[in-house]
Amino acid sequence: MTHTVEKIGGTCMSRAPELVGTLFLGKREPAEIYNRVFVVSAFGGITNMLLEHKKTGSPGVYARFASDDRGAGWQDSLLETAEKMCAIHADILTHDADRERADAFVRDRMEGARACLMDLQRLGSYGHFRIAQQMQTVRELLSGLGEAHSAFVTTLLLQRHNVDARFVDLSGWRDDSNPSLAQRLEAAMAGVDLASELPIVTGYAQCAEGLMREYDRGYSEVVFAHLAAQTGAREARIHKEFHLSSADPKIVGVENTVKIGRTSYDVADQLSNLGMEAIHPNAARILRHADVPLRVAHAFEPEDPGTLIGPVGGETGRVEMVTGLEVHAFELHEPDMVGIKGYDACALAALTRHKLWIVSKHSNANTITHYLTGSLKAIKRAEAEVLNTYPDASVSARSLALVSVIGSDLREMSVLRRGLEALEEAGIEVEAAQQGLRRVEVQFLVPRDALADSIKALHRHFVAAPVEAKVAA
Q1: How far apart are CA 174 and CA 63, in angstroms?
Q2: CA-CA distances (angstroms) from residue 377 to 128, 329, 373?
Q3: DSSP class of 43
Q4: 229 and 267 fall within a common domain
């Protein structure tokens, strides 16, 4: 196949007029505009308003509906979200007719959603019906409104620039069928002529599998990956407002970062595990199995090829990224554990039940330590559950930071030894360190307040210094 499937995130979508001059059109010849499929996220902040804020947890329409009982708080939130949508596309669309069509689109979708939720509330007022059983469906319904809006507005924007853009709505709006994801994608793309049309596809797809049940807010990248795999794309691309680089520029400084350029899916998996937004781990798995290479590019630097992720990584013996995150060390110590199975299973079951993300793990004869991200409330509940099963055990949770040095092949670099030396020179105490046999990643556990300084020290040693030496040579 000759086409690409490309994903645009919400932050970039909020700068849609700029994307016309870089990503959608730029300096391309008319024929070069096509043979591309764009999967779009909701405009920045809209999904937070529809569901709940991803970082702060501040309630949106969904959270208010779930907690308001039969109150009207969620309706106020829905109205506020509709007004925000209209304000966004009023800035993006320059023609009054386009604005009117976009206003009508938002009005239809939001009024439809409001009617659905009110009917559900009325049903819930009868003892035989339980709203809780429908809340996952409500979450899916609301989430799809954001992607449908951004895709529709982008289609209008491009059509105004004489592009044969086509709005491809996967959200299942007013569709009484319940197809699988594969069937939904096949039906939506069946009549599209990629050589002469530019499909703008919603990042949310309604399907029998229920994407949010499994992926929650990561659904758009999963839809993007399935679409690339199912249509046999020659390449999948994710466009971001920054390059996939050697460290967070906010920590080490933009001038000190280095674009990765080429890496492996193995490295992408490590980044996903640490919460980096390179690509959702399930999306990476889909593309890897379909043998579709992935490119992470800068949406506003169209001449730059970005970073290619494939089966083979970049040059060996090179640290590609230094990153980290705050974790809790969940430590289970029991002297009677030696030679007895079951302790690990108990801890894993408790952590899974309370939806705690396991970043890494270490164990010895009588101690099992999981490095987690999640709320302290959930950790305390998991701790109580483990102690209920093993009352003689000692369970503790410490706040630490995990800093990771990542590369496609680090076998000849002595990263563990050199990393410990670099951190010692920076005056940072290392609580623990570990590396696997694959030599893709080396992890250092440091005090939580030393997270940024540790990243700086390791990046300076493994990335900045070798680059400076290469430039000098």
Answers
A1: 23
A2: 33, 14, 12
A3: P
A4: yes
Q: Using CA of residue 397, residue 398, residue 404, residue 409, what is the dihedral sign?
A: negative
| Residue listed under structure tokens 């764009």 | 38
Diameter of the chain by CA atoms?
78
- How far apart CA 93 and CA 102 sit, in angstroms, is 9
**In a shared domain, residues 30 and 103:** yes
The Cα 85–Cα 82 span in angstroms is 5
| Domain C-terminal end among 249, 281, 310 | 310
Q: How many domains does the chain have?
A: 2
Helix (H) or strand (E) holding 201, with range, is: strand 198-202
Reduced to 3 states (helix: H, G, I; strand: E, B; else coil), residue 261 is coil
* Residue pair 182/226 in contact by the 8 Å Cβ criterion: yes
Domain limits for position 206: 4-241+262-310
Nearest to 5 by CA among 287, 242, 305, 289: 287
Q: Is 457 helix (H, G, I), strand (E, B) or coil?
A: helix
Contact by Cβ (8 Å): 326, 414 = no
What's the residue count for the chain?
Answer: 473
Query: What's the CA gap between 115 and 109, in Å, rounded?
Result: 10
For residue 212, give the CATH number of its domain: 3.40.1160.10
CA distance 392 to 114: 53
- pLDDT profile of the chain (473 residues), mean per 10: 91 94 91 95 96 88 84 90 98 97 98 94 74 84 96 98 97 91 96 95 94 84 95 95 90 92 88 76 87 93 90 78 95 87 88 93 93 93 93 93 92 93 97 92 97 97 76 55
How far, in Å, CA of 47 to CA of 148, rounded?
11
Q: Is residue 196 part of a domain?
A: yes
Q: Residue type for 287, please?
A: L
